Amino acid sequence: MSIRKAANASFNLIVSLILVSIVVLPLLWVFLLSLKSQADILAWPPKFIFSPTLENYKNIFTSSSTQHLPFMRVFSNSVIITGVTMIISLSLSALAAYSLGRLNPKGKMKINYLVLGLRMIPPIAIVVPLYIMWNKFGLYDTRIGLIIPFIALDIPLSTWLLQGFFEGIPRNLEDAAVIDGCTRFEAFYKIILPLAAPGIAATSIFSFSLSWNNLTLPLPLTLTKAATMPVLASQVRTDEGVLWGQLGAYSTLMIVPMIIFTIFASKYLISGLSSGAVKE
Hints:
Helix content is 72%, strand content 1%. The chain is mainly alpha-helical. It has a single domain (65-275), classed as MetI-like fold, CATH 1.10.3720.10. It is globular, with a radius of gyration of 23 Å. The relative contact order is 0.14.
């Protein structure tokens, strides 16, 4: 038995290392790319030992290929668009998920299928209609012109995720709150939402990622005023080719906020799991 346990432990360790490597190594490679000079990047075989430089990060603010897209303006666009999208979509999705999961409206299954069906629509399919409409309504190259479709794309997934969390909360807590004089909304706000904190934290990570990393919509729907970080990263090229060092720097700067937000949200996820444990 000890040999079998040792073999199982070794197998699990190997599989874990492989999975971690698949996730971590590309991120590490991008980070190292941002610290290399152009000569080191183009060297063959690839150099793993080199003199690091911050030149690529300095060029972010001075590169002629992206002068029409100042970094700080683009970064602020991404933060504002992502933040507003996440807050609005989570608020609406929480109400929709609560209604579907707790109130059991007529035609609940059909509504769920509709929600999943809307999530399956590829964003590229709505680019041309949005481009035509936004030009007519004056929303082209504006933040609100990106926030609206981002919210529309985010609500179906967020609703589907949150519904499962709401359905897992014991109903007697809500009934007790109503008996104590709470309205249905007060019971939802004061009792259900705090207990659903792990689900909201997990859903917020997906919502943040959807807006922060999206290139399909911002690329055709923006020009300079509302461009986001993925759009800026796609512009890092010259007549000689792609500036891989600057691309690595932009990618690193895009990954860092995502990691910070995930760590921040995971704290609420863990605290919600521990404080929201309920035994019937």
